[in-house]
């Protein structure tokens, strides 16, 4: 169905504060700066529904967007932002893990992976954690325009099989 209307609902700092589990939702996860907020804007064809930045660490809270009054996109803070203070990084894992373990209306996590570099340790760990916790997962590659050489498809298949192996462990 076509996306007709997108409304920002709220930002939450804890799973407990998120909107009621009353509609299906699609959560967008991945490393800081991989393009999570940009993907939401691209899918809803609006420039600045979700705030983006050239600098990693832009999205800091769990943001719910209501689409066509019937389902949610959830924009999450990125992981693996090296410059974040240790405390903030610990926080990230506690609050987003809390989110995933408590949303029975979650249709799937879209795990965004930068296609222009090999999957990073933290991406593999994340795929593995989601797999072990039986959380539905869909891989989405971003920054395909930045892939070098003409081997795009083969390289993506390689990235994909590596990610799948970790998910399946
Ligand atoms: P955090 O909120 O910090 O976790 O980052 P994010 O994953 O939401 O990234 P965001 O959407 O803010 O994008 C980060 C930067 O990457 C921006 O400068 C985007 O314009 C750029 N970007 C996003 N997607 C792509 C893509 O497919 N290709 C290229 N070349 N740049 C992209
Ligand atoms: Mg963001």
Automatic annotation (TrEMBL):
User: Does the record bear Protein biosynthesis in its keywords?
Assistant: no
Which keywords, in A-to-Z order, does the entry hold? Answer: GTP-binding, Magnesium, Metal-binding, Nucleotide-binding
Q: Which cofactor does it need?
A: Mg(2+)
Residue intervals passing through the bilayer: none
Could you tell me which residue ranges the EngB-type G domain spans? 22-169
What GO molecular-function term can you cite, just one? metal ion binding
Asked if the record carries the keyword S-adenosyl-L-methionine, the reply is: no
Family named by the database record: Belongs to the TRAFAC class TrmE-Era-EngA-EngB-Septin-like GTPase superfamily. EngB GTPase family.
The name on file for this protein is EngB-type G domain-containing protein
Source organism per UniProt = Rubus argutus (Southern blackberry)
